[in-house]
Each structure stands twice: as C-alpha cells, then as structure tokens.
Amino acid sequence: MSSTRTRLAVAAAAALALAAPLAIEDAHAGTVTAAPAATSYTPAQVLAGVQANMTTANKVNSKPHINTMTRAQNVNVYQVASGVFAYSSSLAVDDDGSDPDPDPDHQGETTFQDSNGKQLAAHHVPFYVLGDDCWDRKSPCPHFFYKEHNIKGRQFALMFYQGKCIGAIFGDTQTGNDQTTSDNDSRELGEASVKSASLLGIPSSGTTGGVDNGVTVVIFSGSSWIVNGTNANLNTNTQALVQNALDTLGASMGGTPPTSSTFEAETGTLSAGGTFDSNHLGFTGTGFANTANAAGAFVDIPVTVAAAGTKTVTFRYSDGATAARPATISVNGASLGTLNFPATANWDTWSTASISAPLSSGTNTIRVTGTTADGAANIDSVTVSQ
Ligand code: GCU
Ligand code: CA
User: Fold this and answer.
1) 261 lines ligand 1 (CB under 6 A)
2) In Å, what is the CA distance from 170 to each residue of 156, 217, 339?
3) Is any atom of ligand 1 closer than 6 Å to the C-beta of 144?
4) Atom of ligand 1 minimally distant from the CA of 376
C-alpha cells in the first residue's frame, strides 16, 4: 500500500509541537469547536447523523475517489457539519513509520511526526492516510484535497466500523503526482495504520490486512482538533478526544439531545463460562449477556456519560427461571449494593431493574455479579439517564 514518502522538515514539526500533550488551540472560524457538551451522544447516534448528512448536496469532491481495496471509483467526501468531512471506504493497512517500531513489515517513514519530531509509528499510533497532493493539478482540486480544508498532520478523526468507534489522526499521505503509475496515487481513500486496524478489529497485518468496505472516517478540521503527543502516548491522547468529538458533532448536527443513552450488554465482557447469546426473542442490539450459572459470575458493560453525576442506571433483563437472580452492581470497581432481578414469565420476556449510581464523565464500567449459584439474569442492555 505504501511507497516513497516525503519527510517534512523537522523544523515544521517542531513548530506544530506544543508543550502540553493534549493542548487545544484556538479554533479557526468555520470549524467545529471542542466544547463540553451537556449530553452524551453514542457512536451509533453520531454515525446515523453523519450518514444522514452524506448527501449529494454536501459532496465536496467533483470526481470520485478510488476505494483503496475494491478499486471501485465510488468514494465521495461529504461535509457533514461545519468543518467536518466524512467518507466511507475500505481499510487497507499502512505500515509506515519505523520508530519505535521493530516490526519487519514497516516501510520507510510516515509523512508526519509526533510532537518530538519522531516519525509516527504505524503499530502504535492509529492514523489515517490522505492524498499527498492534488492529482489533477487543478485548483480547486476535483478530488478532496486536505490542504484546501484546513486539515494538517495529526488532525483528529473518528473512525467507525461495525459498531466500533475509535479516534485516529492524520498520519501519512499517499504517493504524490510523480508516481501515478502506481495503483496507489493520491486519488485513493481508505488507507490507515496497523494500529487503526487493530483497534477496529480489522485484520491488522501490514502485508495481508484490511477489509473490503464499510469504514467511515469523520475528519474534524481546524487547529483545535490537532492532537499532540509522542508515539508512546498519542493513542491514549487520541482516544481521550473521542467522546468530546461525538458530543460536539452530535450537538452540531442538530439532533435531539438524548436524555438517556442505552448501551448494549454485548459491547461488554463476561467472566469465564459466560456467552453472548441471541437464542431468546425480544433482545435489542445483536444479543444479550448470559453469565455462567455460578455465584460470582459477572458481565462488565462500558457506559459513557458526558458529565459526572448521580444517574439512574436501568438494566433490561430476563429471568425465565423460577427464582429471582439478585446481583451486586458495581461501578468502576466500587460496589453499590445488591439489586434484585425478579423472575420474568420466561426467557423471551424482558423486564427492567434500576439503581442510582454515581458515574464519572467519560467511560465507566458497570459490573453485574450474580450472588447465587444461578449466576446473573440474562442482561440485554443498560440505559443511563444523562
Ligand atoms: C437457560 C437459558 C439461558 C439462561 C440460563 C440460566 O439455559 O436458555 O439463556 O442464561 O438458562 O439459567 O442462566
Ligand atoms: Ca445464565
């Protein structure tokens, strides 16, 4: 997927670098400004809003881009909100950037550097790739050309794929005009680093990895969305911006702010012997959590809120056995006490049980631990008031 890269002058990288690892600069006019949102938007809500705005009226390019893996010329870029650009394509794995990466896959160097002037390392930093210059040599460029849209190195983006949502930064560029004989010129969209692929659950091999379609990249332009940090902490700093980006974009797209958010149990993890099942009717999402039938069996469910506070946490559950399935509820390791989960008519019948819980802003882990030898009830989802 890669070829010769141009190294930016170290001086340019130094000029971009800031002392604080995650400093936010003043926003440019016409860009979305990072700001604390009153409510928390889920990735599914934001992706639905993005897709609703990927319309012809919002198309930025006049000539289609090439899907980097399928080779179809059907990838377009849309301005889905002020200063926010989105495209859907496949993901081909870019393995550039050798420092501090010992992987033998790596080739050459990335175009952009971390805040210490080191080339970004594809196995450590989730990044996406755009064309190096305007292939058509026209202005405005018929293809989406980052230099025309206030997009610079380490520019933040959200990447969505099959229910997952990660943060990524602009880390590398495709080959320039002088190498258009390759199949890898600047009209292509879809390449991203090994780390991006692995965070999205995509085969991440630098030589054989990638998926054929369905990755949506949403780029936040402007200097307030440039992520600072080193190869060692850029991933952490980038993921720390995800909820802020979801909330900022969610609010700017004019959707109704949610008064509660629902998180599917199947996004969580189970203790030994548990499974995520779909063999009973009426669940939401793709299934439900079925813990092992043992005292101490649990399911951990991540939930996200924008602002810290005491929230009502409501479990949607089923207990088709005859006895209740009491369970200890804990948040980030701190127990809130035991919640009773009374029996339901059968395993296809769902009921709710609620508890009040102090949550931190950002992601919290809610654990449901069965206290009896039956384990926990089947857990479908958790709804959190915002
Ligand atoms: C049945 C049912 C499961 C449930 C289990 C239990 O096997 O199909 O969904 O989890 O009983 O008793 O926990
Ligand atoms: Ca069970």
Assistant:
1) no
2) 7, 11, 46
3) no
4) 13
Asked if residue 378 has its Cβ within 6 Å of ligand 1, the reply is yes
Report which protein residue has its CA nearest ligand 1's atom 10.
Answer: 290
Is the separation of the CB atoms in 293 and 329 below 8 Å?
Answer: no
pLDDT score of 258 more than 80? no
What pLDDT digit, counting tens, does each position of 343-383 carry? Answer: 999 999 999 999 999 998 778 999 999 999 999 999 999 99
Omega prior to 358 cis, within 30 of 0: no
Locate all alpha helices (DSSP H) within the chain, ordered by sequence: 10-16, 43-52, 194-200, 234-239, 242-252
Contact between residue 301 and residue 290 where contact means Cβ atoms under 8 Å apart: no
Please say if the pLDDT value at position 175 is more than 50: yes
The answer to whether the CB of 259 falls within 8 A of the CB of 147 is no
C-beta of 290 in contact with ligand 1 (< 6 A) = yes
CB 326 within 8 A of CB 315: no
Ligand 2: centre distance to CA 329 (Å): 17
Sequence-distant (≥ 6) Cβ neighbours of residue 314 within 8 angstroms = 352, 353, 354, 382, 383, 384
